[in-house]
Design brief:
Elements (H helix, E strand, L loop, with lengths): L2 H27 L5 H25 L7 H14 L1 H22 L6 H18 L8 H26 L2 H29 L6 H25 L3 H27 L3 H30 L4
Helix pairs in contact: 1-2, 1-3, 1-4, 2-5, 3-4, 4-5, 6-7, 6-8, 6-9, 6-10, 7-8, 8-9, 9-10
Length: about 290
C-alpha cells in the first residue's frame, strides 16, 4: 500500500469518527441538561459536522457513522450520567488530536481541525456541571464504609459461626443498622457544613450506597452452602465493586485509578484479615460450636 493510500485510509477513519461524534453530541444535547450545556454540545456537534465535511472534500466519499458507538455513549450517559459519558468522549478527543497531528502539513485544513479539538476539551470541561457529582463524596462514604466494615464483619462471622444462614442473618441485621446509622451521620454532617449539598439527599446517597453494598456482599451466603467459599466469593464481589466504582471516579474526576483501587482493596482486606483472626480467637477462647 502506497503512502497516499495509507493517508486516504487514515483520513476516512477520521471522517467516520467525526460524523459519529456529531451524532453522539446531538443525542447528548437532547437529554434535557441545562440550556448552557445543550448549547455547548450542539456547538461542538456543528464543529464535528464541519470537520466531517472538510475530510469529505479530501476523500470525495460519504462515510456512515458508527451506530454502535452512538448508542454506547448515549446509554452510558443515561446509566452513569452525562459527565461519565462526556469524559470518555474527551479521552477519545485526546487520541484524535494525536492522530490529527500526524497529518498536519500533509492535508490542508488539518491544523484548524486540531485547534477545534483542543477547544472542544476546554468547552467540555467548562460545561460539566452535574447534580449527581455533588454527592459522589456521600456515595464514597457509604460504599467505602460498607466494604471495610462488612467484609471485616463477614470474615469474623464466618470463622466464629460457620453457618451460612446465620452469617447471612447476622450480616444483614448488622449491615441494615449500619446503613441507617451512616445515613443519619451524613445528614447531620452535611447539615453542619457550608455545602451546596442537600442533607436529606446526601444521607440517602450514603445510606443506599451502604445498603446496596451489603446486599451484594451477603448474596453468596444465600446461594452457597460452604461458608468459606461464601467468604471468598464476598471478597471477589468486593474487588469487582471497588474496580467498577473506582473506574467511574477516575473518569469523572480525572483521578488516578490504580492508587484509589489498591488503597480501597488494601484497607478492606486488611480489616477483613484482622476480623478473621479475631473471630478465630473468640471461637477458640469461648470454645463455641454451632
Amino acid at each position: 500500500m502506497s503512502e497516499e493510500d495509507k493517508l486516504q485510509k487514515t483520513i476516512l477513519t477520521y471522517q467516520k469518527n467525526e460524523i459519529t461524534e456529531y451524532h453522539i453530541y446531538r443525542k447528548l444535547a437532547k437529554l434535557g441538561y441545562s440550556p448552557e450545556n445543550r448549547e455547548t454540545l450542539e456547538s461542538i456537534a456543528s464543529d464535528e459536522l464541519r470537520h466531517y465535511d472538510a475530510w469529505k472534500e479530501v476523500t470525495h466519499k460519504t462515510v456512515a457513522p458508527s451506530r454502535w458507538k452512538i448508542w454506547k455513549y448515549y446509554l452510558l450517559a443515561r446509566l452513569f450520567g452525562f459527565t461519565f459519558a462526556v469524559k470518555l468522549m474527551e479521552r477519545g478527543e485526546e487520541d484524535a488530536r494525536e492522530n490529527y497531528a500526524k497529518v498536519v502539513g500533509a492535508v490542508s485544513g488539518a491544523e484548524e481541525i486540531l485547534q477545534d479539538e483542543v477547544r472542544h476539551e476546554e468547552s467540555l470541561i467548562g460545561l460539566l456541571e452535574e447534580d449527581r457529582l455533588r454527592y459522589v463524596g456521600s456515595v464514597v462514604l457509604g460504599l467505602n464504609d460498607a466494604l471495610v466494615e462488612l467484609t471485616g464483619a463477614l470474615a469474623g462471622f464466618t470463622f466464629a459461626l460457620q453457618n451460612t444462614a446465620l452469617i447471612a442473618l447476622t450480616g444483614s441485621i448488622t449491615g441494615f443498622a449500619a446503613a441507617l446509622s451512616m445515613g443519619a451521620s451524613e445528614y447531620l454532617s452535611t447539615k453542619a457544613e457550608d455545602s451546596p449539598k442537600r442533607p436529606i439527599k446526601a444521607s440517602i446517597y450514603t445510606g443506599m450506597a451502604y445498603l446496596l453494598t451489603v446486599v451484594v456482599l451477603i448474596l453468596p451466603y444465600l446461594l452457597i452452602e460452604n461458608p468459606f467459599i461464601c467468604l471468598a466469593s464476598a471478597f471477589l464481589v468486593a474487588v469487582i465493586v471497588i474496580l467498577f466504582f473506582n473506574y467511574y471516579i477516575s473518569v469523572t474526576k480525572d483521578e488516578s485509578f490504580f492508587k484509589r483501587f489498591f488503597e480501597m482493596v488494601g484497607i478492606s482486606f486488611g480489616v477483613a484479615a484482622i476480623s478473621f483472626i479475631f473471630g478465630y480467637l473468640v471461637r477458640s477462647f469461648f470454645d463455641i460450636e454451632i
